[in-house]
Design brief:
The chain is built from nine helices and 17 strands. By secondary structure, it is α+β, with helices and mostly antiparallel strands. The chain has two domains: about 100 residues; about 140 residues, no CATH class. The strands form three sheets. It has an eight-stranded mixed β-sheet. Strand 10 and strand 11 form a beta hairpin. It is globular. It starts with a helix and ends with a helix.
Length: about 240
């Protein structure tokens, strides 16, 4: 019975509006609904087991609850902590946080004009291994992050439309706002998606004359950038400051 209870979608999380971008990391989760009041973002549709998962637990500034009869209980608590606000207007979380990365038109190879490339929802969830975020977000985080948290991560900076962005590869990914990616062969695919026709993976690599370390980052159905992992540097406060 306890196992059945943990599988019911009664989990609720809240996060201050100021930090709502951190919810980007769960935008690919199925059946999650999001709403907000004047102070907080609310997300429902999780089961209690999911609330305890590393993917949820690593999001900072979250509060975790179980919903019973419109009352919110902290996990394992016998008495309610508060009521779920009334009148909330719910929407799917992936509509609230669509994939938003500026178009890298100068690195777009026109693949969609030569091959019908499509990304589709993945049936199995995979742990993300990379994240793209703004330079400003990484700067704010790295200035106070312990060195051990950066160990094993690599990064590269990208100037896009006069804005600085960074891509960080390695796990565990940093708990910062951004768009996460999984590695599929030599392609970084947005979390929660896979190529509709994986059989074309190697055809694409041949068309683009792939060299050792080359990777394609699929930002969406048409926007693709090409990077080589040899150009990524170990992430540290010193390597970051050198890019200023």
């Amino acid at each position: 019975m306890e196992e059945d209870t943990e599988k019911r979608p009664t989990g609720v999380i809240k996060i201050p509006l100021h930090y709502q971008e951190y919810l980007n990391s769960i935008r690919d989760e199925e059946d999650l609904l999001i709403s907000q009041d004047h102070q907080y973002c609310w997300v429902k549709g999780l089961n209690v087991a999911a609330l305890k998962s590393p993917k949820i637990q690593r999001i900072p500034f979250l509060s975790f609850f179980e919903l019973k009869n419109d009352l919110l209980y902290q996990l394992n608590a016998l008495l309610p902590d508060q009521e779920l606000p009334q009148g909330l207007k719910w929407q799917p979380i992936n509509e609230k946080f669509p994939i938003q990365i500026p178009a890298f038109n100068h690195n777009y190879f026109g693949l969609a004009e030569r091959i019908n490339i499509q990304l589709v929802k993945a049936e199995e969830e995979r742990e993300p291994v990379a994240i793209i975020t703004s330079y400003a977000v990484l700067k704010s985080y790295i200035e106070t992050a312990p060195a051990i948290r950066l160990k094993g991560l690599k990064w590269i900076s990208m100037d896009v439309l006069q804005e600085k962005y960074v891509m960080i590869i390695g796990t565990p990914i940093l708990p910062i706002p951004g768009n996460t990616f999984c590695l599929h062969n030599s392609f970084y695919i947005p979390s929660g998606y896979i190529p509709a026709l994986p059989i074309l993976d190697y055809t694409i690599q041949e068309m683009l004359n792939f060299e050792e370390g080359d990777r394609l980052i699929w930002l969406d159905q048409k926007q693709v950038i090409r990077l080589n992992e040899k150009n990524f540097r170990p992430l540290s406060i010193s390597s970051f400051r050198l890019t200023r």
